[in-house]
Amino acid sequence: MKAVAVFPKSREVRVIEDAPEPRLSSPTQVRVRTLEVGVCGTDKEIADFRYGTPPEGSDFLIVGHEALGEVVEVGSAVQGLKPGDLVVPRVRRPCPHERCPACRHGYPDFCITGGYTERGIQKAHGFCAQFFVEDVAYLHRVPAPLRHVAVLTEPLTIAEKALREVEHLKERLPWEPKPGRAVVLGSGPVGLLGAMVLLRAGYSTTVYSRSPKPNVKAEVAEALGAPYLSSQQVPVEELRKRAGPVDVVYEAAGASKAAFEVLKVLGPNGIFIFTGVPGRKEPLELEGAALLKQMVLHNQVVLGTVNAADMDFDAALEDLERFHARWPGRLERMITARHPPEEFIQVVSDKAGGIKHVITFG
Ligand code: BGC
Ligand code: ZN
Predict the structure, then answer these.
(1) Based on the domain organization, do 88 and 166 belong to the same domain?
(2) Which of 4, 57, 221, 361 is the most buried (most CB within 10 A)?
(3) Of residues 159, 186, 158, the one with CA closest to residue 253
(4) What is the pLDDT of residues 60-93, one digit of tens each?
(5) Per residue in 80-130, pLDDT tens?
(6) Three-state secondary structure call for residue 243
(7) Ligand 1 atom 6 nearest Cα
(8) By alpha-carbon position, which residue is closest to atom 10 of ligand 1?
(9) How far is the CA of 118 from the centre of ligand 2 (A)?
(10) 279 lines ligand 1 (CB under 6 A)
(11) Which residue's C-alpha comes closest to atom 11 of ligand 1?
């Protein structure tokens, strides 16, 4: 079958035509025909050979971790799925170590050993192939009306997990705080989907990102009801004045300098969430004392979050239905273009532009 693979040793990224077609090897497995695979910054890193690891014994890694597919075959013990159903798979699989409480409790997103695998990223083939096989435990059924936007489920789960953590953290306040003001740093898919989640939760949300207006990301943000400010046009001091004291900053840019700059706008009892994994290593000078003083005197929380759990995928699918009803056409607008697998390399090159690029298997 056809698949998109990276060969780190020979530094190649290409379509392979003869990847072995996966078959069911346990009664709880499901065989899925891939419909769409989203491409993100992580794929760019992998295609640049700066991240990602092939499965043991393989010289290549099939990429793709943001997938939507159609069930074609189910094992004899599979319940709740049948051929024709649409599904999205989770990404991370547990480590094998007895001493890892996270993985042993079904939360490999909090794995403490680093021995987890991630499909399409870390020591496990991904979904950017005509077919994949997955255990039913790692699949989520997608309502048919979400067919054209469900490829956004996985990037949305990042925001779902983050907001779930914010809700937990708010419990440290002995009263019930109302959702206040939020700033989203970055306007890629993770940023814009994060803005949707924050708006849905009741935060008045501003998107702060690099590209000057007008641009398609700003257009989407503002159509959602989130003012868009460009860091090239509005410096952080001005953002502080315009947005007021900020209760939640949701960082989705993966740029360390910008992130620490924006940390300064966080208000009393605020929560700053890092989701971006920086690619570039830029030198950073911090006013450490001022920053610590701000964080201590204002009871602030700085939180990093990665990957997502079972419940975050369920929440993401429910939210996609809500977003579809509340902002008709906006999710669709975030999908810039659909491409055949042969165009993967072109898509991961920095020139692609737009918001979310998707590989389709037709
Ligand atoms: C994926 C996560 C993954 C992370 C680190 C992100 O792009 O969405 O599922 O855990 O990369 O590999
Ligand atoms: Zn991704």
Answers:
(1) no
(2) 4
(3) 186
(4) 999 999 999 999 999 999 999 999 999 999 999 9
(5) 999 999 999 999 999 999 999 999 999 999 999 999 999 999 999 999 999
(6) helix
(7) 42
(8) 307
(9) 11
(10) no
(11) 42
Q: Is the CB of 63 under 6 A from ligand 1?
A: no
- The total of other beta-carbon atoms located within 10 Å of residue 19's CB is 18
* 30-51 pLDDT per residue, tens: 999 999 999 999 999 999 999 9
Task: Give the residue from 304, 321, 349 where a domain finishes.
Answer: 304
CA of 155 relative to ligand 2 center, distance in Å: 6
Ligand 1 atom showing the smallest separation from residue 41 Cα: 7
Q: How many residues does the chain have?
A: 362
- Tell me, what CATH number does 115's domain have? 3.90.180.10
Q: Is 221 helix (H, G, I), strand (E, B) or coil?
A: helix
Structure confidence at residue 257 as a pLDDT band (50, 70, 90): confident
Q: Which ligand 1 atom sits nearest the alpha carbon of residue 40?
A: 7
Q: Which domain holds residue 77?
A: 3-142+334-360
- Of 304, 326, 349, the one marking the end of a domain is 304
**Confidence check: pLDDT of 281 > 80:** no
CA distance linking residue 37 with residue 3, whole number of Å: 11
Nearest CA to ligand 1 atom 7: 42
317 SS3 class: helix
